[in-house]
Amino acid sequence: MKPKAIDLPEVNFSDWGDIRYLHLGTEWVQGSMKLDAPYEIELEYVQRMMAWLLFVESSSVVNRHAMQLGLGAATLTKFSRKTLRMRTTAIELNPQVVAACRGWFKLPADDAKLRVVIADAGVEIRKPQWLGTVDALQVDLYDHEAAAPVLDSEDFYADCRALLTEDGAMTVNLFGRSSSYARSLEQIVNVFGADAVWAFKPTREGNTVVLAHRTPQHPKRPVLAERAQTIQTRWRLPATKWLRVFKALNP
Predict the structure, then answer these.
(1) Domain, as residue range, for 130
(2) Is residue 5 part of a domain?
(3) Which PANTHER family does the UniProt entry name for this protein (predicted)?
(4) Strands 197-200 and 164-174, sheet pairing
(5) What's the Cα-to-Cα distance from 17 to each of 35, 49, 204, rounded to whole Å?
(6) At residue 58, does pLDDT exceed 80?
(7) Cα–Cα distance between 83 and 156 in angstroms, integer?
(8) What is the average pLDDT value for the chain, to the nearest integer?
(9) Are strands 114-118 and 31-34 parallel, antiparallel or unpaired?
């Protein structure tokens, strides 16, 4: 018996001023890129997906492995590979999204430090080759209507935790008209433990980024402030502002 075909949405883009937006068959924005700065991060919530940088020494970043579940407009993938110079893996279900990112959003070709895997993220991350190898896991999985996360269960978050190195962290975007932030947060806490979870306040658009460590980390405020300044100076992310809207769930 042949496997059931997956009905994937049409992929297209639109330009507004100096910003290019990715769409999956609707007007909902699934990602963006500055046309004159294609390797920068334009959207506020996507910038916050890099908050794991607050918990590591900047000199160690280049030796770490980043993985994105859901390619979007390849913003996080490009930033991890081109700006941070990390080994980077992205897992994306829709081959049209990969083609669009290569054609319209400056996603580089695979090389020794970049791999884009066309697969169902929920299945792919269970493969033994990935377990315990990921230092920075970034989860942004939404369907074409952006109604709720596609994968959002305790079993899924347990699989995510199993990917992480001992000092690794997951950042996840929680957004959607029919999703429940409280329910999603509860499932993450049940897997990672309240001591391991940090959360931002929602953006104006309603995106809430949650960070969960495999091993709880609670650096002193001066350490976080110093790292935030380094992040802002070196990689042009607004990390000093993050500290005003980013808190440990169980300080």
Answers:
(1) 43-248
(2) no
(3) THERMOSPERMINE SYNTHASE ACAULIS5 (PTHR43317:SF1)
(4) unpaired
(5) 9, 25, 21
(6) yes
(7) 29
(8) 89
(9) unpaired
156, 186, 197, 238 from 192: Cα distances, Å = 12, 10, 7, 27
C-alpha distances out from residue 105 to 6, 86, 136, Å: 24, 19, 22
> What are the helix and strand counts (H, E) for the chain?
8, 11
Count other Cβ atoms within 10 Å, centred on residue 177: 9
In this prediction, residue 205 has a pLDDT band, given cuts at 50, 70 and 90, of confident
For residue 97, being part of any structural domain is answered with yes
CB 54 within 8 A of CB 242: yes
What's the pLDDT band for 178 if we cut at 50, 70, 90?
very low
pLDDT band at 124 (very low <50, low <70, confident <90, very high): very high
State the pLDDT at residue 150.
Answer: 60
- Secondary structure letter of residue 66 according to DSSP: E
Instruction: Say if 23 falls within a structural domain.
Output: no
**Predicted structure pTM score:** 0.90
In this structure, what token pair is assigned to residue 152? 């959002």
Report the domain count for the chain.
1
10 Å Cβ neighbour count for 31? 25
Average pLDDT over residues 155-159: 96
Predicted pLDDT of residue 210? 95
Residue 206 lies in a domain: yes
Residue at 217: amino acid letter: Q
Distance of alpha carbon 86 from alpha carbon 80, whole angstroms: 6
User: Is a pLDDT exceeding 50 seen at residue 2?
Assistant: no
Q: What is the per-residue burial (b if ≥16 Cβ within 10 Å, else e) of 141-168?
A: bbbbebebbbbbeeebbebbbebbbeeb
